[in-house]
Amino acid sequence: MANEVMLNTNFFIDVIENMGRLTEENRNYWTRLDSDIGDGDHGINLSIGFRAVKEYIDETDFSDIDIKNFLKKVGMTLLGKVGGASGPLYGTIFIKMANTLSDEKEITCEQLAEMLINGIDGVKTRGKAEVGDKTMVDALEPGMKVLEEKKSTLTVKDLDEFVEKMKKGAESTIPMVAKKGRAMRLGERAVGYKDPGAESSYMLFKVIADHLSRKLN
Ligand SMILES: [Mg+2]
Fold first, then answer.
1. Which residue ranges does the record assign to the DhaL domain (predicted)?
2. Where are the beta strands (DSSP E) in the chain?
């Protein structure tokens, strides 16, 4: 039963550290995607942000830090350190996720689903983007819909669907003309290229799903 699984601050520290590892592995890939239709710094920017987050984790004693405070600090760090449009957007996701909570030391899977829904909703509001604009919203919103529908009874199968929808969403940006960001200026020339933010957000949010699936298995 999904709701018997409880997630503590350590779960989130593990998730964030693995997001940092994934970012290092994909730094060049994401930067290459951004070179196609942007200014070629997306992977570098995220790497700078997650390295700063790792520094915070390494120097912090977490015995008194709850999930909300941890995620808020992660969000603030990304907001301050990640350059370009993605800093505020990624920062917003984690801050909105944090603001879903009060001072819990442990939360349910359903609470995590609600946090993700709030985070994704926050990014839509902040970026004023909709599905079809060739942004991270194209990856995240289809995933959010799965969570909205399944949050109270989340299973590994639902999490697989969450990941699959985000992956397809990122791929769906390839034939799109961009309506937001730098790629907008390219008009039709952006067609044929995947949006770097959609790809990085799909891959980073897959890390959360992978960790949660392992808990539910
Ligand atoms: Mg860029």
1. 10-210
2. 6-8, 106-108
